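Weekly structure sync, notes
Attendees: PL (lead), two postdocs, one rotation student
Agenda item 3: pending single-chain targets
PL asked that the sequence for the first pending target be pasted directly into the notes so everyone works from the same version. It is reproduced below exactly as submitted, 229 residues in total.
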Amino acid sequence: MSDQLLLAAETGREEGTRSSRRLRRDGRIPAVVYGLESDPVTVSVAWPDLRAALTTDAGINAIITLSIDGTEQLSVVKDLQRHPVRRDVIHIDFLRVTADQQIEADVPVMFVGEALEVTRANGMVDQTLYTLTVSAKPADIPDEIEVDISEMTLGDSIHVSDLALPPGVTTLVDPEDSVAVSLVTRSTREAMAAEEAADAASEEEGTEEGGSADADADADADSADGDDS
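Predicted structure, written out during the meeting:
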């Protein structure tokens, strides 16, 4: 997990759709801070500062220290709402946390290495799990989970139980859930099917030619028998 980030949050914002729109026009994002059995607090944060906090290696799982009315509160992003068309951030929820608290986070799963044996067999590695929900203390949440696919061969699969999680990090995801599978590509399957169809047609043609030759041979034999008589 990356170093903690400091983000100033202003209180006293008006609630409601119109006030939220005015805030966004002024370059600020409405937000709420809650958790740790304390009352929720409505705040706003500057969009450039928020964007900088969420574009570190930790991404949305960054540990953010909110500065609110002269006090600092450790937090993580719990929910981030975007405009359905423009995809602009329109609201954000911060969850108060403590350094020794176990929290859940969705961590990206990233492939490393190249499955050469699969490539040589005209196959591909299909990623079936893109994020893994983990539980850990805020500082122990990894930026990403790497999966080495270099030793995979055609027909292999990697499961959650095969992942090497960092110390202090656990997951309740089913160990048998697949992360990656290696399989024959669609184009290769089509080529194989076409080849099998061509082989079958060739065998059928050979059988028909053999049957015709046998019929001709029988006709010749019958003709020869008639001449002898």
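Discussion points:
- The chain has a mean pLDDT of 86.
- DSSP finds four helices and twelve strands in the chain.
Action: rotation student to compare against the earlier draft before next sync.
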